[in-house]
Amino acid sequence: MIHDLATTAGAAILLPLFAALVLGLVPSWRVGAIVNAVAATLTFAVVAFLPASIGQTGPLLLVDRLAVHLSLLTAFVAMTASWFSTAYVRVEVSQRRLNKARLRQYHAMFQLFCGALLAVLLSNNLGITWVAIEAATIAAALVIGLPRTAHAVEASWKFFVLCGAGIALALFGTTVLYLAALPALGPGLKAMSWTGLRQAAPTCDGAVLNLAFVFLLLGYGTKAALAPLHAWMPDAHAEGPTPMSAILSGSVLNVALFVILRLRGVMKANHAAIDPAFPLVALGLLSVLLAAFSLWPRRDVKRFFSYSSVEHAGVAAFAFGIGGPAATFAGLLHMTVHTLTKSATFQCVGRAAQMKGGQRFADITGLMSNHRALGLSLAACVIALAGLPPFGLFSSEFLVALAAVRASPWLAAVLLAGLVIAAWVQIARLQSLCLGPATADPGPVPPHAALVPVWLHLALVLALGLAMPGAVFAWFTSIAQATP
Amino acid sequence: MQHLGYGVLAYDVAHLLGGAALVASFVLLYQRRIPALINTYAAQGIILAAAAAWQGHVQHAAHLYVTAALTLFAKGAIIPVLLHRIVRALDIRRTIETALGVFPSMVLGVVLVALAIEVVLPTTLGAATLAREDLAFALSVVLLGLLMMITRRTAITQVIGFLSMENGLILAAVGVAGMPLVVEISGAFLVLAIFFVFGVFVFRIRERFDSLDVSHLDRVGEAPR
Amino acid sequence: MSAVLLLILACVVAALAALGLCAAVLPRRIALLHAVAAGLCGAGAAITLAGTPGASVALPVGLPGMAIHLALDPLSRPFLVLVFGASAAALTAATDVHGPEDVRAAPFLPVFVACMAFALLAADAFGLLLGFEAMSVASWALVLARHADAEARDAAALYLGMAAFSAACLVIAVAMLAMPSPDLTFASMRQHPPDGAWAAGVLGLATLGAGAKAGLFPLHVWLPRAHPVAPAPASALMSGAMTKVALYVLARILFDLCGDATPVWWGVPLVVLGAASATIGVLRAVLEDDLKAALACSTVENVGLIAIGFGLALAARGADLAPLAALALGAALLHVLAHGTFKTLLFLGAGAADHAAGTRLLSRLGGLVHHMPVTTGCMIAGCAALAALPPSSGFASEWMLLQSALAAPRIGGLALQTLFACAAALIALAAALAATACVRIIGVGFLGRPRVPRTAGAQEPALPVRAALIALSVLTAFIGLFPGLVLRLIDPALRHLVGGGIAATSLFIATSHDSPGYAPLAIGVLLAAGAALPLLVLRRRRMQERDAPAWACGFAASPPWLPFGDPATQYGAASFAQPVRRTLGTLMLATEQSTPADPGSPVPARLVAGFTDPAEPLLFVPVGRVRLRLSSAFDRLQFLTVRRTLSLMFAVLLLFLTAIAVLEAL
Amino acid sequence: MSTALGFVAFVLHTALMLAAAPVAAGLVRWLKGRLLGRAGPPPWQPWLEIVRLSRKQPVFAENASFVFRWAPGVVFAATLAAAALVPSFALHMTTAPIADLIVLAGLLSLGRAALALAAMDVGTAFGGIGASREMTFAAYAEPALVLVLTIFTFALLASTTNLDALAAQLHDFAFGLRVSLGLALLSLLGVALADSGRLPVDNPASHLELAMVHEAMVLEYSGPPLALLELSACLRLLLWMTLIGTLFAPFGLGPADAGPAGWLAGLLGWAFRVVVLSAALALLESTLAKMRVFRVPEFLGVAVLLALLAVVFLFVSQGFA
Predict the structure, then answer these.
(1) Confidence bin at A375 (pLDDT 50/70/90)
(2) N or C: which end of chain C has fewer CB within 10 A?
(3) Is A284 within 8 Å of A321 (Cβ atoms)?
(4) Nearest residue on chain A to C630, judged by CA atoms?
(5) What are phi and psi of C547, to 5 degrees?
């Protein structure tokens, strides 16, 4: 079992955890920030080698194309977030919003969070998946509580209680799933592994699978911020430090959707069990509509974009709910493109909020008049989020609509209605952020170099949407075919 | 696994301990004062440890004894003592402020248990009877823990509701034969982490506001943001 | 169109987009870049005219795994010629850069033209929608050129919101069309036309989507608010070319992709919406005080007329009357070209007046003819076409449209016959009211005496603007006098879509081959002879003219501090429209509050007369209220306490568990 | 041979219309005078006025632009072109293929728009009143005209709006008297009264500023331009009379190539129709008073409704026949 960890996948998981330990001991926050960035970059380098070891399956680790794809995405977003974090932290300390003692905890938890996410993606054992998600939740809760404002504490308390209860249900679901696989695979690690489950799924008892599916969907649905269970997401984003929001909105939702996608595979294999399409589609649509309408009254910019994450997670869940290679392809592309765009958006918003000394729409206006580069980047990000051409979200939403119409035009109509309502308010807020009279800039003006990661992300989104190279298209198609 | 049914000692004792854990959950719902609540929680921890030990004996799985010891030590002793010290150190108001009255929440608890049994038993016809019984009791304890978190305002009772839900989970994990040790480590790890975090929270909340009443936190949430 | 010519067209589109980026980088060279862009557009128009539709080209860009195909087929060719022609004129006018607003708008103008051309060239669903939506984003940036004032921002937000709505409808419509076929190209979509309820769904969505973008009633409210705010060349292209691209999408979906076995009733919604748009559009054009808003409303009217043409063609094709269908579709497409030309001319003229007099409000303009004779002359030529006066281009398409509306009752069915008769009457009413609007725009805006000292200082615009105006006037006159030649450009589309051509020679258009028709050149000659007659008769006694103060029934001379005479003694914009408002105002929810001054009090009596577009209180305000109520309902979720959020999760858990229990019991 | 005769007929027709227009207007004025017991000016009085005006020196307002100077030419050209298209004493003249009713309506609206623009050019209140009312009333008349056209295109087999073909078909009494044709006549009479500016819509004789519509627009003109405008007004009246006569009572009208003998019969028929219509108009004007301005849309609204009723009646009857 131990030799599992000696592989590149093992290294990818252990590196951040080890970095978390080191960062726990490093006293000065400046060194900590640099180490954090270096660790994240190293992790991405290691993960870049993962495609070579696709197909490695052990009792603990399972490396298939879907896992590798999301690991690459998570590591890349973590890397750019860590670069952004170095600059962000310097400004926060200079404006005395974060005291030096807390930063050691911040960097340690940052790396623990990334390590936990990679562990979930690459694990084969349901127990490890659950423990990793638990560790990620605790790390995130501590980081969100960092700014020590009243709102931050309330946000982390809400985050912890809701996610704690959610994953408790997930643990119960894991137990029942194990119970279902017991008669076919016998006691021991095999009955707790994704490969074993997929193999034993046709022979399991459908009713037990249903029971397990309910608990697991609710548990991991909370982490995926699906509609009624999304309440922790907006507060976590608004109060926590922005680099954390960049990862939180991008990777945690993807990881939870990844687990649900694995679960969908198991459920689809068993004919007696209920078809996972209906609940997923229902929750996805509810997320899109609820987020679309909740965007309008928002006065806080980061809370506004967190609802946009809930909306796009809903679209991905909807696509996975419909099922079939085309819909899964669209859902996967949408998840990828949205993660890249959303982390770029949070980086722009973070810089703007620091510059304007506040994160309400009233504080940040008229960016284009005297900060043309930042204003243009934020405008491009929000245009991409609104699903307008030429960025990738337009193509992915087009593909999702194509798949939805194949299922039923009414579903597509409801989905696109939600997307139009959300696009409308995002355009209106974009205009208030970037255009009109400019507000004062008490904080430091970010250098142009700071926006390089943002343009990198947008370039990737543009390429993925309109000019996806053949190899990447083959990669996405093989993933879509592999996940049933 | 030999046939388990009435009259077989292993089944009867497991059934008894599961029922005891369920009763402990109801007693938690019944409490009006915080110290009594903590002691009841300690009792439930001990019952859970006994159930784990007994499962270890029945399934001849050595690791369950370790789990029993861990549970007894953590949930039976350390957490209640720490909770008592916090209550005394921060001189928290002793009475529990309830959102839903004690009797209505008890009635709701009974309904939840009925639902748990109605859901678990017909669906797990294939599994061994011992596992089905344990699962039903475990689900009931989890639902009662969740109910406790919803119907009480004070922060400490929410914490204890959360912990009793964890007890339900451990009961479920223990009940299923052959669950690998991983679950045990996670259980322990979880308990430790929760206590640590709650400790930090309590300290910080205490530092932030004067009372532990969660509703005070709610008022912070009311400002439109 | 041989592949080579098509590739050149694709390069022209790419070059236009590149020019846009250069304009962003080199703000000082904008005039030169616009000139180059105008040249490119002219070349594009020439190539499109020269080439014959045919081959298709695949681009490396496109949906993952699918390439975007470009092709020029008979339907998109006239539209592309219009877009390139109008853009060439607008870009020439745009070379006269004045003020920061034009510098901000400069990068997006060529990109806007490139996107429109791309949408027209696209031969597959994704390419069409990519170009369509990119066109909206580019023009949204143009509307935001003057983003300092909040009214421009609100108009831009409403504009792009409606564009997103229209794109969403079209995505579903196109997806429904593409469902049975293997890929998204039009060629394969034509093989599997939809039928039954599915086809009705496509009709509804296409009409809703393309109608929202073209400005059909009741989704037209954004048009009179967005167009006036954009700089002149941009609003000229938005009204002249963009609405036509939306109508192209409508024609492409309804005539081409839905096959030719569509039932007769398919024409009814378009005729009804078209008639409503025509009436409401022209009524509002007569009542608007803002010059460019009035022109935008007249765009709504003309889009309505084109929609009526499409509707009649659909109904006729459904009843297998190919000649009538060809006549109606020919009328619609000729009106597309005519309106595209003269509306661009009018907006450029209005932009010149706005820049010269510093205001767009008719109540402040006046007397521009004395210092801006060329602009006024071109505006009169444009307005003559807008008012459909013979022998202008507007009259040619109007004549064909009326002929098809008058012949439409042959399709049968009392309800349909009455509908078509009412449509014919409304077309005539729209044309007559358009004439009123034009006389008001020219009479109040350009003739008479200046109403504000600033307007008196107006001067002729720069040479490029005047060149563009004159070129467009000549083009409008050409279309007016030789519609037969222009119909030769449209004829292949008619044969391709409705299987019938139009009986038209270069000098003569007729409803069918043997019946007499309309000969614009002959009418022109007759008019010239009529005008020459009095000059010949009076030539011998050429008296010396004498100037004197205006008689005005012996009105006293104006006081010294009012050198241009008291503006109050001259008919203004509101007073000219008063008879129309007083009689047809109920349609436009006209309101008049008069507060009489009680005797002896120095407070002046006030009369406030206003109107609201009926679409706003009937559609936009209720939708806004519902959205607000839903938002506040969902917003309560945001402020739930921890406990209540948890009970929400608990409720969902119980719901699922009971579902499982019930499932088990079954 | 027939085209030459056609062309000669066309030239004669145009000359006849030009010459007869002021006389027709004078005839109406003379008849109205006689009816009111006055001696009344002789019918050729308008000719005298036109010649007098054309000798006077034109005075233009200071604020007048080229629009004011060129408008009379355009108005006269449009009205003359329209008059030339309407056959008076012979059918199938050279202009027969282009004599389309919609073109006729277009030419009339061209003349009206040119005059309205000229009225607005000087910038006086009276020009504005005249232009605004003229354009608004015209807007209500157009739908009625088009609905009447629907009757012709639908009822006739030729299904065309060409005046010559219509007159030929009507001449052969192709389909006898119909109720819808009667309603169409009434509606067309209303439109003709409004368009040519006669009572009850506009009082041609009065110079009370607030009441007049057509006169208000020509207030600033003098000398030859005024003569042209007066001639155009008379031509417009004669044009309507000829149009109604040709469409609804086309007896005596023969093809142009029937030679001078045929023309004479046509001429007599045309003269008789003009005199009858002038008398009817004079009788109408001496009994009616001018209607309040905001009643005119209702008056024209009635004309539109009559036409619509005629159309629906035709569809219903055609449906059953």
Answers:
(1) very high
(2) C
(3) yes
(4) A293
(5) -95, 145
Q: Regarding beta strands C503-504 and D59-61, do their DSSP bridges make them parallel or antiparallel, or are they unpaired? A: unpaired
Asked whether the beta carbons of A248 and A236 are under 8 A apart, the reply is yes
For A415-450, write each residue's pLDDT tens digit. Answer: 999 999 999 999 999 999 999 888 888 888 888 888
pLDDT tier at C226 (50, 70, 90 boundaries)?
very high
C-chain CB neighbours of D76 within 8 Å are 530-531, 533-534
Spatial neighbors of A128 by CB under 8 A, at least 6 apart, are A60, A119, B182
Bridge-partner residues for D254, per DSSP?
A: D90
Within 13 Å and on the Cβ side, how many CA atoms surround B112?
26
* Cα C134-C137-C143 angle, rounded to 5 deg: 140
Contacts of C548 in chain D (CB under 8 A): 59-62
Within-domain flag for A329? yes
What DSSP letter does each residue of C546-584 carry, written as one string?
Answer: EEE---GGGPPPPPTT-TT--GGGS--HHHHHHHHHHHH
The distance of Cα C247 from the centroid of its chain, to the nearest Å, equals 9
Cβ atoms < 10 Å from Cβ of C389: 26
Neighbours of C544 (CB within 10 A): 6
Angle formed at CA D93 by CA D91 and CA D98, multiple of 5 degrees: 105
Sequence spans of domains, chain B = 9-222
C642 contacts B217? CB cut-off 8 A:
yes
User: Which residues sit opposite A62 in a β-bridge?
Assistant: A57
Task: Report C:36-95 residues touching A (Cβ under 8 A).
Answer: 60-65
pLDDT classification of B1: cutoffs 50, 70, 90:
very low
Q: CB contacts < 8 Å between A and C, how many?
A: 164
For residue A163, being part of any structural domain is answered with no
| Local confidence band at D318 (pLDDT 50, 70, 90 cut-offs) | low
Phi, psi torsion values for D133, nearest 5 degrees: -70, -40
Tokens of B96: 């529990």
0.90 exceeded by pTM: yes
DSSP symbol at C110: H
Degrees, nearest 5: CA angle C59-C63-C69: 30
C136 to chain A: which residues are within 8 Å by CB? Answer: 388
Helix, strand, or coil (residue C521): helix
pLDDT score, position C501:
81
The CA distance from C246 to C303, in Å, is 10
Domain count, chain A: 1
> Tokens 């005024």 sit at which residue?
D226
Confidence of residue C200 (pLDDT cuts 50, 70, 90): very high
For the CA atoms of C59, C62, C66, C70, the dihedral, rounded to the nearest 10 degrees, stands at -40
Instruction: For residue B200, report the phi and psi dihedrals to the nearest 5 degrees.
Output: -60, -45
Residue C122, strand partner residues: C70
Q: What is the largest CA-CA distance in chain A?
A: 69
Rounded alpha-carbon distances, angstroms, from residue C621 to C151, C164, C208, C618, D53: 17, 19, 18, 7, 60
Residue C509, H or E segment? strand C509-510
Q: How many domains does chain D have?
A: 1
Query: Would an 8 Å CB–CB cutoff place B222 in contact with chain C?
Result: yes
Report DSSP state, residue A139: H
> Phi and psi at residue C509, in whole multiples of 5°?
-120, 140
3-state secondary structure of B97: coil
Q: Indicate the DSSP class of residue C451.
A: S
- Give the up-direction half-sphere exposure of residue C241: CA atoms within 13 A in the CB hemisphere: 35
Which DSSP string do the residues of D251-305 spell out, in sequence order?
TT-EEGGGHHHHHHHHHHHHHHHHHHHHHHHHHHHHH--PPPGGGHHHHHHHHHH
ipTM of the complex: 0.89
